[in-house]
Amino acid sequence: MRSKQQRLSVSSLQQDLENHDGGGTSWSTYTSGDLMVQGHYPWRPVDLMLRQTAPPGQRLLKGIPASPGISIGRAFVLSVESPSVPHEKLEQRRIPDEVARFRSALEAAASELVSAIELARTESASVSTIIESFLLIVSDPIITSSIVTRIETGIPAEAAVVQEFDVHKSILLGARDPILRERVQDFDAVKERLIGTLRNRTLTHAAGGNAIVVAGSVTPQDMLFFKQTGTLAYVTEVGGINSHACILARDMLIPAVIGIRNATGEILNGLNIVVDGYSGIVVVDPDESTLEGYRRKQSEAEAYRVSLGALRHEPTVTRDGHRVSLFGNVDSPDQVDAAVMAGCEGIGLVRTEYLLLHRSRYPSSDEQYEWYRDIAQRAYPLQVTFRAFDVGSDKYRDGIPHHEDNPALGLRGIRFLLYRPDIFREQIRAVLRASAHRNVRFMLPMVAVAEEFEQARILIDRCKRELAAEGVEFDAEMPVGVMIETPSAAMMSDYFAAESDFLSIGTNDLAQYALATDRTNELVADIFDAMHPSVLRMIRMTVDAARRYGRSVSVCGELAGHAAATEMLVGMGLSELSVSPALLLEIRHRIRQFSYDDCVELVRKIERCTTTPQVHAIINGRR
Ligand code: PEP
Ligand code: MG
Fold first, then answer.
1. CA distances in angstroms from 289 to 8, 266, 296, listed in the order given
2. Of 144, 167, 198, which marks where a domain is finished?
3. For residues 352 and 330, what is the distance between their CA atoms, to the nearest angstrom?
4. pLDDT of 33
5. pTM to 2 decimal places
6. H helical segments located in 326-442
7. Which atom of ligand 1 lies at the shortest distance from residue 353's CA?
8. Residue 356: its pLDDT value, please?
């Protein structure tokens, strides 16, 4: 194992390349055990830290592998800091050109926004109202004319934009209405976009070509944009591998490396880079032989992916005939097709909050119904599990009335939905209508206490009565399940098993809350691990409770798609796993390799562990 401080060299890189033996290449394999932990602290040779500009020639940076795959492309570097603006006054004769420069940036920003709205519509069949609200700001005549007036007094365009937006920002911040205060974010986003456009440095400029985005951080919204524009990969300075942006990257097959400190300073814009999402290595300005090695790895990985295709119609059984059901985790209708093509037995998790990306308001019940019905129809006759909006924390935060210091512990998931029963009711009605063909289940996120489940059930029953009175068709027996993703829910899993129709374990949040580690924070990435014995005990407790009450239980967190964990999960008694469609065949492949007795034996050993490294050591066959 390489020490965290050890400088990476081309030979160690070659070693990494050699280790990627095509037959077994898998992201999960490469992120298991020490490599993940080892990748946590990025490699930062002191000489590079002191340099203003990176030297020419090949350099290697080490981050956290966050989404598998290898991409070779051109770096598109987005500055993390809010752009510094020139302060010196313009000469009088330059003012008309500066106004023209601002007007053309404004036009470009507006037309980018218009096409982004179009793209978001086709992607999720939803109107991108958040972008529409950006567009309203960009086209606001009062704001734009005021910026022009500032430029006419000799202030450079960037500075004029900052000044004008700061005025609006301070007015909004002083507003009593929390909704108005929330709009500050829109103004900040538009300000950055305008300045980026003035400097030809917005995300949209990365579109096309073979861009690899290098940024401070990325959001789930950015992922949607990357997919639409064909961005090859991304590299960030911060983030955790179980952040929602990373989950989306894996779903969308966009390779990613995160946690490279000062990546936006280390990597110069326009340079060729290689992103190795298996090992977390980024090669800046690669030489020909490195490129050759990576091209070979790319084709090996592709060959491996194609070989897995042969398992599409094969059953998911262990060598000794123990059956496991594989379900898909999806964010959009087209992913349902991918999961069905890979031979899933149903959709175990639809993250409905992705319907909200790029919107500034909650979609109506009718709009939601269209989306849910589309998904249910595509999956039919397979079952689909819609999860109620899990907003808050690092996801969509619109409608949350206050700034929260600890959003992950705040008004998130079911708490938000009970706080806004008007929004929840619209969603329940839409899901119920989509259940008319009896292949729909509904699942509640972030439940911590019994009252939340009870209140949600009262609301669901009320919606059923309303729909029945309106003569609308729906499945009166639609199963309602609970996500076990807080330690409290796990400890109370016998209650939730007795009262609900099914359980699904969200290991991402269960680990976050059990270990008190923010899943989006790279500084605690080496503590965040769903294989910690405390999390495993809670999984076991939940599985036993479900079994006692004859309820189905699945794991739908990222642990289910972690090939190194599969044997252990099966041995713990799980016979339903829900994973990203991109990983489904690999997990099937894995399950078909071992016997159920081996799985049980493995779990017997793991149960004695007190630390995560001990669990990894047993899983990796070192103990
Ligand atoms: C989880 O927490 O494991 C889960 C599946 O939900 P999400 O990742 O969307 O929070
Ligand atoms: Mg969760």
1. 16, 22, 11
2. 198
3. 9
4. 27
5. 0.74
6. 333-341, 365-379, 414-419, 421-434
7. 9
8. 86
Q: Pick the atom of ligand 1 nearest to 509's CA.
A: 2
Q: Is the CB of 507 under 6 A from ligand 1?
A: yes
Query: Which residue's CA is the nearest one to ligand 1's atom 6?
Result: 506
Any atom of ligand 1 within 6 Å of the Cβ of 25: no
**583 and 520, same domain (yes or no):** yes
Burial of 368 (0-12, 13-18, 19+ CB in 10 A): buried
Question: What b/e sequence results for 292-321 when a residue is b if at least 16 CB atoms lie within 10 Å of its CB, and e otherwise?
Answer: ebbeebbebbeebbeebeebeeeebebeee
Least confident residue range of 81-90, 276-285, 309-318, 581-590: 81-90
- Please state, in angstroms and rounded to a whole number, the distance separating the CA atoms of residues 617 and 610: 12
Which has more confidence, 210 or 87?
A: 210
Instruction: Kindly list the protein residues that place their beta carbon closer than 5 angstroms to ligand 2, a single-atom ion.
Output: 485, 506, 509
State which of 243, 508, 515 you would mutate to test the pocket of ligand 1, scoring each by most atoms of that ligand within 8 A of its C-beta. Answer: 508
For the stretch 521-577, pLDDT in tens is 888 888 999 999 999 999 999 999 999 999 999 999 999 999 999 999 999 999 999
Q: Which domain holds residue 22?
A: 10-83+204-300
Q: Which of 47-61, 123-137, 143-157, 198-212 has the lowest mean pLDDT?
A: 47-61
Q: Mean pLDDT across the stretch 420-437? A: 97
Position 488 pLDDT exceeds 60:
yes
- 290 shares its domain with 383: no
251 lines ligand 1 (CB under 6 A): no
What is the C-alpha to C-alpha distance for residues 606 and 599, in angstroms, rounded to an integer? 11
Quick check: CB of 426 below 6 Å from ligand 1? no
Q: Is the CB of 394 under 6 A from ligand 1?
A: no
Q: Active-site residues: which are they?
A: 244, 556
Cis ω for the linkage preceding 581 (within 30 of 0): no
What single-letter DSSP state applies at residue 361?
Answer: S
Taking Cα atoms as reference points, which of 489, 498, 502, 154 lies closest to residue 349? 502
Q: CATH no. for residue 554?
A: 3.20.20.60
Which residue would you say has higher pLDDT here, 372 or 526? Answer: 372
Q: pLDDT category, 128, cuts 50, 70, 90?
A: low
Same domain, 245 and 102: no
Please check whether residues 194 and 208 belong to one and the same domain. Answer: no
